[in-house]
Amino acid sequence: MEFFIDTADLEQIKQASSWGILDGVTTNPTLVSKEGLRGAKAIEQRYVDICNSVTGAVSAEVLSTAFSDMVAEGEKLASLHEQIVVKVPMTADGIKAIAYFNSKGIRTNCTLVFSVGQALIAAKAGATYVSPFLGRLDDIATDGLNLISEIRLIYDNYRFRTKILAASIRSTMHIINCAKVGADVITGPLSAMQGLLKHPLTDSGLEKFLLDARKLTP
To answer: By three-state DSSP, how is residue 199 classified?
Structure first.
């Protein structure tokens, strides 16, 4: 499983990257706005800075909703850095844009996916990644993990190369459960990844080892 961090915060990205387990980054307009960035130049520079902080894919989202505008914006984003993956919403124009980008060798991430049918059509269009939003489905009492399981089954049935990128990860258990059902990638906050490091028995065991080690010191 690949680990992406879902943020536009450079310090958090560098912290996760320093562990040696970070495979990529996802962003969206909401995350970028939280960083106080305004204007195309500032946002584009942040994408480049993120790419220079990691070695893997960096999803940068188009803000347009019409096909021709998505194409123009996506091509510009892709030209910023070879690591950029163009993030495109799950709409009819979005699917058309994904097919276009696929024909041009531009990688894409189909975002805002909430059904198996949407995931199927995104894969047919040639999306590099498809992003089912686990947390948002959980918010409305819908089983997000079951959606990922069903997508996994269909993709395996037909050997689609599209990767399942579990998005809207809210907790450490979301990560673990996504690993169980076969998501290719998770993207979530730094806090969810930090939770994987922790266990009370590890803490108490280390405390005892250090205590006993001090007894060995003359």
So the answer is: coil
β partners of residue 26: 6, 59
Q: Which residues, 6+ apart, have CB-to-CB distance to 148 below 8 Å?
A: 132, 134, 164, 166, 178, 181, 182, 183
Mention every residue, 6+ apart, whose C-beta is less than 8 A from residue 175: 169, 186, 188, 192, 193, 195, 196
Please state whether 28 falls in left (phi above 0), alpha (psi between -120 and 50) or beta: beta
Residue 173 CB contacts under 8 Å (≥ 6 apart), including other chains: none
The answer to whether the predicted template modeling score (pTM) of the entire model surpasses 0.85 is yes
Question: Phi, psi (5° rounding) for residue 104?
Answer: -100, 5
Indicate which residues carry an active-site annotation.
Answer: 87
Phi, psi of 133 (to 5 degrees): -95, 90
- pLDDT per position in the chain (218 positions), as tens? 999 999 999 999 999 999 999 999 999 888 998 999 888 899 999 999 999 999 999 999 999 999 999 999 999 999 999 999 999 999 999 999 999 999 999 999 999 999 999 999 999 999 999 999 999 998 888 899 999 999 999 999 999 999 999 999 999 999 999 999 999 999 999 999 999 998 889 988 888 888 888 888 77
Closest CA to 122 of 150, 97, 85, 159: 97
